[in-house]
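Collaborator request, handled under Task 6.
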Amino acid sequence: MKTTVAPTCFIPACPADFVGHAAKVADLLLRKATRLRDSPDRPLKILISGSPGIGKTSIVNLIARTLAGHPSAIEDVNGRDLSLDMAREWTRNLAYGSLFGTWQVKVVNELDRCSKDVQDVLLTTLDRMRAGHAFLGTTNMDLDCLTERFQTRFLAVRLNAPDNASLAAFLAARWDAPLDITRQIADGSQGNVRAALGDLELWLC
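Structure tokens returned to the collaborator:
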């Protein structure tokens, strides 16, 4: 289905809005999140790693919205900005639920930019999480940038970049651009969906 939304403003709303491996991962994780949303009998802790621009943040944001039901139930920070005080506060607040719904969701992008001290504090947060709490993280780096103990607390998923043919077909199916153009864009982006969307927007303008 063609869309008039500018490519760089496109926000995935379902697994079909992703391309390649990201679509499969989004489908599996969203199914899991939906089951837990309706029957919150355990916490959800997910870490998605992979190269930049392939859909990691979009997947965790989709899961967060599915669980939370209200934007105010989601706290979203960058790992670089996650301080020791904030991590300790998260641990202290585990005894409380969200005022805005059944779930309380933390989203941390670039978890590899958290200091080792913050990771150590977050171990307690992750271990004490109960039903109705979710911690969703992403990292562009190899998981070796995170301590081994920290990694073991998550359902860890390695996201692969889409192949050029799949990316070209996805772009051509969603926006009014001929396949030969989207093939050139896909070849230039080398699997970086965000870069491809930016290039397509320039072409459409």
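The cover message to the collaborator said: "The helical segments are 21-38, 56-68, 84-92, 116-128, 148-151, 164-174, 179-189, 193-204. Residues 164-204 form one domain. Please let us know whether this matches your experimental observations."
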